Amino acid sequence: MTKEFAVPPVVFPAGGNPAAGNLQQRRVPTAPFQPPRPSGSSLPFMSFDIGPAASSSTIYGGPIGGGGGGGGPSGSANFDDEEPLLDELGIHPEQIWKKTRSILNPLRVNPAVHKDSDLSGPIILYLSLCLFQLLAGKIQFGVILGWIVVSSMFLYVVFNMLAGRNGKLNLHTCTSVVGYCLLPVVILSAASLFLPQASVVRFVIAGVFVLWATRASTALMVALAEGEEEHRGLVAYACFLIYTLFSLLVIF
């Protein structure tokens, strides 16, 4: 069943041409607003005209980076004399690699490369240790960071109490030595991912890595202090306690 709708008729204006009336009612577009220009000023003003934009050479008096005349200074930025970003941040990859490589041989530690202490390498080793612990199912970011800070302060206090007024090690150097000597503990954490839990082999390997870290850190502390060879045994005992605590985090 169809339903019919009543459509009203369309009435056009007088004259019979609907387009003529609409043309008379259209508004003529006006030019966009432009700020007034002072007559005595030579500064260029931005134009809001819709059209081809003026080139930068016309507005600013020449191409970017080129001198407008003969002996004027160049406007281009010269980055050849700038230092690399890592150097500005105090991160030297070659120096970090040399210090890390010196720890690999605990019998022949090179203290000369550790005289310029830094914290970039210890932070990398700290993050590596936390990553391996995370792979083992242990979230210990805060614990490891707290133990590094406490261990550095402990070693700084113990060594300067032994040296007395002749103590030459500062807290920054102690933190750098403790951080770089974490390399054996980081290797232990990576190797423990493939070792059976609660096995004798695991404890034996942990003991070897603790002795490795103790030997390296003791040699560095005594060498950097210059003349504190008589306190080597006490410094070694303090370092042994520090890295034993870190190895217990890995084992358990």
Gist of the model:
With 252 residues, the chain is mainly alpha-helical.
Descriptive overview:
The chain has 252 residues and is mainly α. The chain is 52% helix and 0% strand. It contains ten helices and no strands. The protein has helices spanning 18-25, 56-60, 85-88, 93-103, 120-135, 141-163, 171-180, 183-191, 200-225, 232-251. Helix 5 crosses helix 7 (171-180), helix 8 packs antiparallel against helix 9 and helix 9 runs antiparallel to helix 10. Residues 54-61 and 66-75 have low confidence and may be disordered.
List keywords for this structure.
52% helix, mainly alpha, 10 helices
Topology:
Layout (H helix, E strand, L loop, with lengths): L17 H8 L30 H5 L24 H4 L4 H11 L16 H16 L5 H23 L7 H10 L2 H9 L8 H26 L6 H20 L1
Helix pairs in contact: 5-7, 5-8, 6-7, 6-10, 8-9, 9-10
Number of strands: 0
Provide the low-confidence segments as ranges: 54-61, 66-75
Helix/strand order, N-terminal first: HHHHHHHHHH
The average pLDDT is 79
Structural class: mainly alpha
Distance between the amino and carboxyl termini: 86 Å
